[in-house]
């Protein structure tokens, strides 16, 4: 469960599935001499300072171990550490991909999930207020789902990626306020933008350094934000009219 809304409701299952779940899966992979592919997250970087953005795989992270996001951030970091331990002690063949904010049709949505893109699109299509947290100057970089899948498949198939950790995301950074305005425009909406309190430990910037993905996988995202959003908005229109 990658939604900050769910971190409040399900912190223990999140922590357990990301740590014990990963450990159990590694045990099964070891027993079958299987290659282990781990979908990690940009959350392992926490709240990087400006000089560490765009963020490369070499950055160790700036993470609060006792905050409202720690059940997710720290358990995904532990998952990576489990993999390293299995590589060191059992010569496990493993690959780690760190996924940045991704969206597209069929994204999980609803008030209990609360991720920014489905929230804003739902609000825009229903002429509800668009809830920007903080002043909206925090940034994210959004990958369209087909680009992300393409990158993942390239990594799965690449032998040279064994033992590696690679960022997969989009390196075009947008503020959340910019995102809100773009979604209002593309949805032809009459919604107003309103400002709500910023959640604790909400990262200020998120943008991947994609040099390694380009060099090792010959991959880069190709779908511009607006194009991806148009497809996602069209999908939302369909399901909300059902
Ligand atoms: N956000 C927002 N309004 C919303 C939901 C999210 O302004 O209704 C902001 C949130 O504070 C964060 C960014 O959008 O800065 C991305 O939030 P999301 O929950 O999608 O994921 P995160 O990248 O924080 O894991």
Give structural attributes:
binds uridine-5'-diphosphate, 242 residues, two-stranded parallel sheet, globular, alpha/beta, three-stranded parallel β-sheet
**Global shape:** globular
Compute the CA-based radius of gyration. 18 Å
Helix content: 40-55%
End-to-end C-alpha gap? 26 Å
**Contiguous runs where pLDDT drops below 50 for at least 5 residues:** none
Number-wise, the strands total 9
Assembly type of the chains comes to single chain
- Main sheet record: 3 strands, parallel
Strand order of the largest sheet: 1-2-7
Bound molecules: uridine-5'-diphosphate
Strand portion, in percent? Answer: 5-15%
Q: What is the average of the pLDDT values?
A: 97
Number of helices: 8
Instruction: List the helices and strands in order.
Output: HHEHEEHEEEHEEHEHH
Look at the helices and sheets and give the structural class. alpha/beta
How would you sum up this structure in a few lines?
With 242 residues, the protein is an alpha/beta fold.
Descriptive account of the structure:
This protein is an alpha/beta fold. It is built from 8 helices and 9 strands. A 3-stranded parallel beta sheet has the order 1-2-7, with helices on both faces. Strands 3-6 form a two-stranded parallel sheet. Strands 4-9 form a two-stranded parallel sheet. It binds uridine-5'-diphosphate.
């Amino acid at each position: 469960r990658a939604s900050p809304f769910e971190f409040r409701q399900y912190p223990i299952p999140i922590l357990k599935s990301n740590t014990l779940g990963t450990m159990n899966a590694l045990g099964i992979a070891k027993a079958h001499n299987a290659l282990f592919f781990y979908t990690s997250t940009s959350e392992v970087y926490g709240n990087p300072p400006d000089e560490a953005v765009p963020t490369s795989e070499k950055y160790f992270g700036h993470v609060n171990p006792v905050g409202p996001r720690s059940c997710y951030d720290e358990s995904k970091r532990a998952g990576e550490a489990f993999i390293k331990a299995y590589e060191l002690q059992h010569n496990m063949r493993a690959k780690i991909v760190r996924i940045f904010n991704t969206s597209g049709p069929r994204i999980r949505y609803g008030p209990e999930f609360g991720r920014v893109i489905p929230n804003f699109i739902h609000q825009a299509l229903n002429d509800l207020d668009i809830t920007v947290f903080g002043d909206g100057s925090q940034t994210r970089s959004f990958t369209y789902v087909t680009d992300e899948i393409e990158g993942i498949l390239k990594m799965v198939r690449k032998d040279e990626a064994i033992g590696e950790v690679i960022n997969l995301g989009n390196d075009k950074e947008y503020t959340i306020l910019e995102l809100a305005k773009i979604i209002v425009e593309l949805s032809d909406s009459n919604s107003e933008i309103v400002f709500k309190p910023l959640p604790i430990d909400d990262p200020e910037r998120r943008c991947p350094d994609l040099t390694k993905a380009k060099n090792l996988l010959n991959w880069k995202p190709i779908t511009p934000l607006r194009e991806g959003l148009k497809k996602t908005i069209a999908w939302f229109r369909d399901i909300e009219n059902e």
